Amino acid sequence: MHAVAPMRRTAVTVTAKGQVTIPKQVRNPVGIGPGTAGSVVPVPADKKRPKSCFHRLRGHAGEGLSTDAIMALTRGEP
């Protein structure tokens, strides 16, 4: 599965067999299809969701190269 930008909360229903249908607007952006394995992370409704493991790194990389500079390097331009 792929990480994506945060989405709006989406309601799902659990069947008597314990199965959940993930809505199409959630499945498609993250590439979930038949047979895709994944995991569920329970988050209490009254608590914030867990921070990303990258939250400590935000702001440390600096501005970096512009897209034009990266493309010039890729093309071997001076």
From TrEMBL:
SUPFAM superfamilies documented for this protein? AbrB/MazE/MraZ-like
**Any keyword Metal-binding?**
no
A GO MF term? DNA binding
Indicate whether rRNA-binding appears among the record's keywords: no
UniProt-annotated stretches for the region Disordered: 26-47
The SpoVT-AbrB domain sits at: 12-36
InterPro entries listed in its UniProt record? SpoVT-AbrB_dom, SpoVT-AbrB_sf
Pfam families documented for this protein: MazE_antitoxin (PF04014)
The superkingdom listed in its UniProt entry is Bacteria
**Could you tell me the keywords of this UniProt record?**
Plasmid
What protein does this entry describe? AbrB/SpoV domain-containing protein
